[in-house]
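#help-structures

NK: newbie question. if I give both the sequence and a SMILES, will the prediction place the ligand too? trying with flavin-adenine dinucleotide
OV: yes, paste both and it writes out the complex. here, I ran yours:
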Amino acid sequence: MMRFSFNNYGYGMDNVGVILDYGVEGKENEIEFDKATNEFIKAIVFAGAKRNIPFVSLKVTGFARFGLLEKINGHEKLSEDEKSEWLRVHERIDRVCNAAYENKVMILIDAEETWIVEPVNELTEKMMEKFNKERAFIFNTYQLYSCGTLEFLKEACQIAVSKGYILGAKLVRGAYMEKERARAKEKGYTDPIQPNKESTDRDYDDAVIFCLQNLDKLSLFIGTHNEKSCLDAVNYMREHAISAGNASVYFSQLYGMGDNISFNLAHEGYNVSKYLPYGPVLDVIPYLMRRAEENTSVTGQTSRESQLINKEIKRRSGIKH
Ligand SMILES: Cc1cc2nc3c(=O)[nH]c(=O)nc-3n(C[C@H](O)[C@H](O)[C@H](O)COP(=O)(O)OP(=O)(O)OC[C@H]3O[C@@H](n4cnc5c(N)ncnc54)[C@H](O)[C@@H]3O)c2cc1C
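OV: that's the protein plus ligand as structure tokens.
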């Protein structure tokens, strides 16, 4: 079997799909949420007509007031107005998921802060139960940097089986580590994040293997720039005769990051798509700046990639001269 590596920077975007990621956040009123709903439906119809846009991603905070989600997560009693407000959030997400189902586009529901995770999971599970009967159209996101997420994923798989739907499992390590640790310290509760990088890595890789072992019950979306995690997944697939293009396994990196991973995987026939933020410039630039600030891992990956790009430039100029 040929050894797989991510060192070649010579391949391009061929066969790499796009995930539309509407980069607008921090909106807090119903008019904006309704506007976002219509925007998403437009994007889904657009994606449905294109072969290379299999997914649209969304954040529940694009459709709901953060304070409301926080209150539900904290099991606080909702006023009558808040109950109707929560119902309207369900209706918006339901409309979006229904459009996705009708247009055969998959929806990735992104994970955000742990202090709003319960209502996000509740909503997502309802949508999976409704729309994932024949195949996974709706994916929940599992952040393996949180203690207990691996067990939660396994339970989610059992629940899906018992309720007769296919689980959509998007696996990430998690992007809000600094924020999570700072809040836990400030408020004096136990830090929900794994004690170190090694434990996050172990749970991430175990989660990938668990999913690959259960492809009859779920669809797997591997969202990472970690080369070893991708390589382990590829090796497992090869060893267990899971074809590269298996319709239940997707790899993904963010646009402009991990291109060496995306391009090499796509070249070998794996399903690969890049998260592509779009939206009004005034919203998208601050959105990207916040993502970069939140994510300390950006620096390491970027320097690894610039080394590979330099190597490729040298290789190409060598060919010319
Ligand atoms: C396609 C895609 C979609 C994504 N969607 C989401 C999403 O919906 N929600 C979300 O939260 N993130 C999301 N992310 C970001 C993701 O969670 C990671 O922050 C980012 O990808 C870096 O992790 P890595 O696996 O790529 O690489 P690595 O560089 O191997 O891992 C870095 C990550 O490891 C963890 N880590 C680092 N140091 C420690 C430590 N000391 N202790 C414990 N853990 C540690 C952190 O999660 C850190 O981000 C997405 C990423 C991709 C590629």
